[in-house]
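Reviewers of the previous submission asked for a worked example of the structure-prediction workflow described in the proposal, so we include one complete record here. The input consisted solely of the amino acid sequence. No template or homolog information was supplied to the procedure at any stage.
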Amino acid sequence: MKLNEIVLRDLFSHAPAGENFRFVFLVENEALEDKILQAGYMAVGISDEPQKEVFLKIIEECQFSWMKDFCFIPSSKFRFLGEVKKQLEGLGYTVLSDGWKIFKDKESRFLLNPEELKAALQAYIMRTSEPTSENTGQPPGAISAVELMKKEILPPDWIVKDMILPGLSLLAGASKLGKSWFVLQLCICVTSGKPFMGKETKKSKVLYLSLEDSERRLQSRMKRQLQGAPAPEGLFFVTKANQLGSGLIEQLEPYVKDGVKLIVIDTLQKVRISGGNKNAYAADYDEMGVLKEYADKKDISIFPVHHTRKMKDDDVFNMVSGTTGIMGAADTIMILTKDKRSETKAALHITGRDVFTDTLEVEFDRNTCTWANLGSKEDLEKQMKEFNYRHDPIVETIKELLEDYSGWQGTATDFQNEMMNKNKGYRKTEVIGKRFREVKQFLYEKDSIIYEEPDNAKRKIHKFRRTRLKLFSTDSTDTTDTTDTTDTHATTPP
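From that input alone, the workflow returned the following structure tokens.
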């Protein structure tokens, strides 16, 4: 803003018109001042002593309560701006002393590349903490434990229950594994308020940055998943996007202002900046950090899609392509893996700051190109074990033997003969003995049968008995409870 007394008095006589107008950059270069204004931020040029005096005079005259809402950012530590900084601080105004770092050795470059300047200003302001209004006797920005526990904090507002919260989430998986189908299904479900993978969603507007697809492919995929249903309102697609630090955040802003709560970026690599002087970890963490800060600030969920590396790892979360800086910055991480690419079933591994670490078994329907949640891996394994137990010929033989007798005991060869007599098939004796040990716990929990392993190495006698047996007399009303009753003499039924 040109140093016009009337304009400056009008500016500082009212509360800031918006968030961007709260920050006032103080510069010495008139051309840079113009570029900052064009980027949508406030700037005041102070390049000589008279301009400095005029500016400070206006500031002193406009010491109203809302003046504390303004935040001054000098672009230099020296000359007139250094003097202005000291006097502003003396008057009690907020001055960000590190603002000069934005412009150091970059003014010429910013003048040639306004988009780079805009991105730098945006990133700096996002990193800046809110000004401290009063001295509370504690470090700026801190909250005491007492205040924290008194504070009423609402529970998390899930986008997808127990899966996706506002913040930064990440989905990673090998190429051509079905990640794009996964996130398209997510977008449709959230926009329409329908369950996703069997989990409740909060109906919200969604922006899908599908940066590897054309509109033709997107339409084709929508038709496949919708199966004749109408397209949900509130779902928006973008097939071209700016990069982080080069206008991406500004590109997202209108959608967020319009109420978008979930932004999917497919893929992360398409919006990353190539090269640079930072080491790999710092670059990964900083780029993810920009997305996280924006998501936290706007209370939205940003959900990038990324790749895993080809090399396997015992910890599946170490397979995320890039450094640990990517995973470190994310709130929630999901990894999609398959044993074989041709299989329809896969594992969805989930971990995060606010979600329980879990592994879901999921299955891809090739007809509708949608994913279904079959349940947690632990639950499925338990169900499979129970199914195998119920349909195991060895278990069936044990239960049939105990229907007629209070107990049974014998060698594995004796049991082998029992199985064949009952048409349960043939099993090797070593298989029978091993299976007895495997189902021991299930026998007790599911059918109240106690199994005692052999205690003699020479003659291996296996023993089975019910934990409780009811014996009925000839009088149907008279019953006697007999506990742990066992016929210890019968090797085979009499």
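The CA atoms of residues 79 and 265 lie 45 Å apart. We consider this example representative of the routine output the project will generate in years two and three.
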